[in-house]
Amino acid sequence: MDKGRLEAFSDGVIAIIITIMVLEMKVPHGDTLAALKPMLPVFLSYVFSFINVGIYWNNHHHMMHAAKHVNGSVLWANIHLLFWMSLFPFVTAFMGDNNYTTIPVALYGVVSLMSYGLLYLGKIPNCCKWKKLYTSHSPGKR
Fold first, then answer.
1. How far is CA 62 from CA 56, 77, 113, in A?
2. pTM (2 decimals)?
3. Which residues contact 98 (CB under 8 A, 6 or more apart)?
4. 3-class state of residue 134 by DSSP
5. CB-based contacts of 55: which residues, under 8 Å, 6+ apart?
6. Domain locations along the chain
């Protein structure tokens, strides 16, 4: 499979994740700054999640840029990553709506950890068999 298809699919899913997160924020009733105050936890949760998803997207992009091609293991590892990332809108809203109580924050942490573990701790890169699927970015090496 061409790695471009994997990147395009992942980019689309991540764009939908961000869209769902912003649509979860409801417009307050009122036209004063005081009307926005109750939304502060929800907004801060959104900002935090937007940054996290952006970091995942950026690193996913760089990892796929380094890949020569992808195999079935990479596809399934990527689907697993996208599954965990697709839970960000839910845990973001859950955390913001409940003012950062223990269970919502812990659940947000589990989703973050599962996404982090797959992308950064090697699930996707290990599936790629580094020497066969990745190019070197070191100067002078090909």
1. 10, 16, 20
2. 0.80
3. 104
4. strand
5. none
6. 3-27+38-133
